[in-house]
């Protein structure tokens, strides 16, 4: 590279071209000859030369940049060379230019200064990588800001001033679990309950696999890692294999060659240090060998209980969860148990504040970071949900969480005509209906959603990490704050610019009251009667003989179920705990309003409250802009507003639909900053008609 700026060739060219602009052009040409993949200004000069000469070297340059990226050594060499070029240009600019002065009297007379070569931003601090060039902000240059070189050989169009790259302000570094724990883990002993009450992306798993695991390996200790979902188990196991990958040479005697032959084998040095299993596996173990389960787990020096909220959120659908709770609680007497979750607050707070089972020095808390949520919006009807999906799916990928599989089918039916081949669906693989939907591997691959629209049940809210900048919208029909917190945690932003909008289904106060009554009657009352019946069996028998109670228990109750033999009834403690937590959340929603209560319960703070925005549809916004202050027949405008804005009469129930009045329409239009006014006008000598006109508020 040094020869570009030294030797006879350069001296000769400077003698021929006395004009500073020509020298600059020559330097660029020589740089192009020797370093085609390292052009300043991202190939700006080449592009202009192609336009003048009719060549295609700029395309060749872009292809070479992609195929031959700079190495570290080339980057250093390039930096040195470009600094040498700048020094040469500065020296040339300082030399007298009699030829140029004689040729430019008209320019000086007009008050136009001669163009000066701007210093490329990348030449000031070394060569930018391709990624850096993509991320650099574009600077718009107006016609008045451009300076033209006189026509002739070597004429170029350049900005009058150097491009200024704004200073990058670094974001404050988030605290991670590793920084909080420090060296404390080396002192964890039997009987210690360690709690990682930390939000997503806080480094909980990183600490276990990158700090605790290597240390356990060195000390010949063992870890068992428990997960709540098979996809998460697979992800953890793959990471263990990656971190523990090791190569070793193994020799064996070759009889034909009469010598030892060595081959390289790939092994995992951590294979005997850590075992990754699921809670469901542990529950099966407890049922099959209740006496041997404790002896087995005591072989391990550390027990990791990841996604511990599983014991709360899945209690209603898994009647064996109590086995996990009892086993882990008993294990804390013999081994340090590490409980990890972003949403297991009902457990963690009780251990910390009420029972002192989690001592302050072993309680590590990091709040969840919701900075990637750009807005939180509530919708109320199924029609609004459909329109939201359509609107957002035209911009990027959409992830929809529903409460039942019938809703998946309905959404697919509504959307398949417009988004043919762009819809993925998934539910629990253990459900019989799973065959008609996609498998998890067909929905998500390498952290990216494979389709534009993905519709799933709660099977997707846990053990799935989505690192996909194209995911711009998450929609949830669920009201449970703990589940919604997990849903929000599925998106793992890859940059500050990787944001998304979240939409939650709204519920009226009547619906909340109804939900509370269902929980009270179907879940909490049976549990109380069963517990009262332990001391007085007549209480339970009297309750069972009430009309419809047995049928209700069989159909709805999750807190009291028939035993495995079907002859008696059994109480499920964790399921009751789940419904008690839900009752507390519903009470908060009743007192503070659904939107405030739900979002506050999701974050345990006001992190999302400031991001609440009213529901608005672009389709209606465009209609308003086109027809502002234009009188239109009332019936026509009413129809347009209702269809584009999903405006409904709040008193409508199910199929009984009525046209919303002007008052109701204006209630919706308030969020768009306009109102409709009605006026009766004569359309001919005999007839009058009602017109609506939109005005800014």
Q: Which geometry do the CA atoms define?
A: globular
Low-confidence stretches: 1-37, 97-171
Number of helices: 29
Structural class: alpha/beta
CATH superfamily caption of the largest domain: P-loop containing nucleotide triphosphate hydrolases
The level 1 CATH classification of the largest domain is Alpha Beta
Order of neighbouring strands in the sheet with most strands: 13-16-12-17-18-11-21
Question: What proportion of the residues is helical, as a percent range?
Answer: 40-55%
What's the mean pLDDT score? Answer: 80
Hey, roughly how much beta strand do the residues contain?
15-25%
Structure described in brief:
The protein has 697 residues and is of the alpha/beta class. Helices cover 43% and strands 17% of the residues.
How would you characterize this protein structure?
Residues 1-37 and 97-171 have low confidence and may be disordered. The strands form seven sheets. The protein has a seven-stranded parallel sheet, with helices on both faces. The protein starts with 7 loop residues before the first helix and ends with a strand. It has five domains: 2-159, no CATH class; 177-366, P-loop containing nucleotide triphosphate hydrolases (Rossmann fold); 373-505, 3-Layer(aba) Sandwich (Rossmann fold), CATH 3.40.50; 509-613, no CATH class; 618-696, no CATH class. With 697 residues, the protein is an alpha/beta fold. Strand 1 and strand 2 form a beta hairpin. It is globular and about 115 Å long. The chain has 29 helices and 24 strands. Helix content is 43%, strand content 17%. Helix 25 (573-592) crosses helix 26 (594-603).
């Amino acid at each position: 590279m040094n020869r570009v700026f030294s030797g006879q060739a350069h001296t000769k060219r400077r003698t021929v071209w006395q004009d500073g602009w020509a020298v600059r052009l020559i330097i660029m040409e020589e740089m192009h000859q020797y370093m085609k993949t390292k052009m300043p200004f991202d190939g700006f000069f080449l592009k202009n030369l192609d336009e003048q000469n009719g060549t295609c070297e700029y395309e060749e340059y872009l292809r070479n940049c992609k195929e031959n990226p700079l190495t570290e050594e080339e980057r250093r060499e390039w930096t040195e060379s470009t600094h040498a070029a700048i020094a040469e240009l500065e020296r040339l600019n300082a030399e007298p230019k009699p030829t140029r002065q004689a040729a430019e009297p008209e320019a000086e007379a007009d008050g136009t200064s001669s163009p000066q070569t701007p210093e490329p931003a990348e030449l000031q601090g070394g060569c930018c990588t391709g990624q850096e060039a993509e991320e650099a902000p574009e600077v718009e240059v107006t016609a008045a800001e451009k300076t033209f070189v006189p026509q002739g050989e070597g004429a170029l169009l350049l900005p009058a001033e150097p491009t200024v790259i704004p200073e990058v302000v670094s974001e404050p570094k988030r605290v991670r679990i590793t920084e909080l724990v420090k060296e404390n883990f080396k002192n964890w002993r039997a009987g210690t309950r360690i709690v990682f009450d930390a939000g997503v992306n806080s480094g909980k798993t990183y600490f276990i696999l990158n700090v605790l695991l290597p240390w356990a390996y060195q000390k010949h200790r063992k870890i068992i890692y428990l997960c709540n979902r098979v996809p998460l188990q697979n992800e953890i196991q793959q990471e263990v294999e990656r971190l523990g990958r090791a190569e070793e040479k193994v020799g064996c005697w070759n009889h034909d060659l009469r010598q030892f032959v060595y081959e390289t084998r790939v092994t995992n040095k951590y294979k005997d240090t850590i075992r990754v299993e699921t809670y469901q596996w542990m529950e099966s173990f407890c049922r099959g060998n209740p006496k041997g389960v404790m002896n087995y787990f005591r072989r391990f020096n550390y027990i990791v209980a990841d996604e511990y909220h599983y014991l709360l959120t899945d209690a209603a659908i898994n009647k064996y969860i109590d086995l996990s709770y009892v086993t882990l609680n008993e294990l804390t007497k013999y081994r340090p148990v590490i409980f990890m979750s972003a949403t297991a607050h009902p457990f963690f707070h009780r251990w910390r504040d009420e029972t002192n089972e989690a001592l302050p020095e072993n309680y590590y808390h990091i709040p969840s970071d919701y900075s990637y949520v750009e807005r939180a919006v509530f919708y109320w009807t199924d029609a609004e949900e459909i329109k939201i999906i359509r609107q957002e799916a035209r911009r990027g990928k959409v992830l929809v969480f529903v409460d039942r599989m019938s809703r998946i089918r309905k959404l697919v039916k509504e959307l398949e005509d417009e988004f043919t081949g762009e819809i993925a669906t998934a539910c629990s693989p253990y459900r019989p209906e799973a065959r008609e939907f996609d498998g998890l591997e067909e929905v998500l691959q390498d952290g990216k959603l494979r389709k534009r629209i993905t519709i799933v049940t709660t099977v997707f809210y846990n053990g799935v990490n989505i690192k996909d900048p194209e995911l711009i919208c998450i929609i949830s029909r669920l009201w449970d704050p703990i589940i919604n917190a997990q849903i929000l945690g599925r998106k793992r932003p890859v940059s500050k610019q990787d944001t998304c909008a979240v939409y939650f289904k709204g519920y009226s106060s009547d619906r909340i009251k109804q939900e509370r009554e269902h929980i009270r009657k179907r879940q909490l009352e049976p549990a109380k009667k069963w517990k009262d019946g332990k001391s007085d069996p007549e209480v339970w028998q009297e309750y069972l003989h009430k009309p419809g109670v047995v049928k209700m228990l069989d159909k709805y109750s999750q807190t009291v179920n028939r035993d495995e033999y079907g002859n008696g009834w059994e109480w499920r403690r964790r399921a009751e705990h789940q419904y008690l937590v839900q009752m507390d959340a519903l009470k908060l929603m009743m007192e503070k309003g659904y939107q405030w209560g739900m979002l506050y319960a999701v974050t345990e703070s006001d992190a999302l409250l400031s991001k609440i925005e009213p529901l608005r549809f672009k389709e209606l916004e465009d209609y308003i802009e086109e027809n502002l202050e234009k009188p239109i027949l009332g019936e026509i405008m009413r129809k347009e507003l209702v269809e584009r804005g999903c405006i409904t009469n709040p008193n409508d129930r199910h199929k009984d639909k009525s046209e919303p009045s002007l008052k109701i329409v204006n209630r919706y239009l308030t969020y768009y900053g306009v109102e409709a006014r009605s006026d009766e006008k004569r359309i001919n000598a005999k007839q009058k008609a009602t017109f609506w006109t939109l005005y800014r508020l």
